[in-house]
Write a sequence for this structure.
């Protein structure tokens, strides 16, 4: 296999993990905060610093909170403004996802964001995996002009949804990019590529590193929240890519 045709996107949670992902050779960064909640919008300062520091494609997630993908008008106003700020900061795209209560894609809100950030690219994230009809949603997102869909095939992890991912990629017929994500690891990425025909892949490769604090307060000595930080090993990204081509 020729690795030049493959794109590896890494979800990062802060400046340090973004730096590690870039060092590991990530082609694109999905910049997030709060990955434990599925990712929320990073701060203005975080986006600005990452944009200044790294030449890699940068796509902030635009998501005001964790939980479901059914938002109030006020929440949408926040996300619309955050999306425009991402454009103003020179990002390459944004990552969004909006649903109606009945499980349909919120076409109007998705289109409003896409129009507001044009000509930036738009990825529709795994809200897609919670939608009622993935093939109807596929056509709607193509119609709006989204660049790609991040999906695990409407299963908790992409390896479990590989059959639907393959079907979506076939039906898309290169009109939109289908990007498998969730549970993508070096052990399964080649299988996903071979069975789906997809060429872009999303992973977080999340780990934890012990804090470099010298003083550990005894009352919190067992607290991972207090003394462990998010971590990405650059070598894990290299291994992910190597697994595609060997």
């Amino acid at each position: 296999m020729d690795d030049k045709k493959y794109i590896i996107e890494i979800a990062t949670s802060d400046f340090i993990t973004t730096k590690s992902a870039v060092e590991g050779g990530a082609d694109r960064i999905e910049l997030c905060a709060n990955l434990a909640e599925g990712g929320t919008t990073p701060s203005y300062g975080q986006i600005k610093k990452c944009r200044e520091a790294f030449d890699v494609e940068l796509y902030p997630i635009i998501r005001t909170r964790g939980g479901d993908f059914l938002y109030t008008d006020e929440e949408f106003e926040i996300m619309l403004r955050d999306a425009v700020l991402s454009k103003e900061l020179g990002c390459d795209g944004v990552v969004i996802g909006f649903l109606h209560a009945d499980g349909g894609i919120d076409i109007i809100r998705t289109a409003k964001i896409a129009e507001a950030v044009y000509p930036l690219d738009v990825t529709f994230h795994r809200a897609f995996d919670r939608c009622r009809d993935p093939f109807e949603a596929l056509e709607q997102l193509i119609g709006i002009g989204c660049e790609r869909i991040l999906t695990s095939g409407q299963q908790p992890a992409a390896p479990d949804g590989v059959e639907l991912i393959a079907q979506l990629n076939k039906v898309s017929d290169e009109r939109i990019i289908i990007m498998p994500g969730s549970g993508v690891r070096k052990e399964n990425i080649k299988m996903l590529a071979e069975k789906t025909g997809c060429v872009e892949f999303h992973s977080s490769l999340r780990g934890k590193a012990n804090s470099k604090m010298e003083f550990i307060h005894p009352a919190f000595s067992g607290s991972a929240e207090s003394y462990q930080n998010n971590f990405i090993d650059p070598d894990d990204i290299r291994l992910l890519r190597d697994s595609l081509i060997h």
In short: The two ends are 7 Å apart (CA to CA). The mean pLDDT is 96.
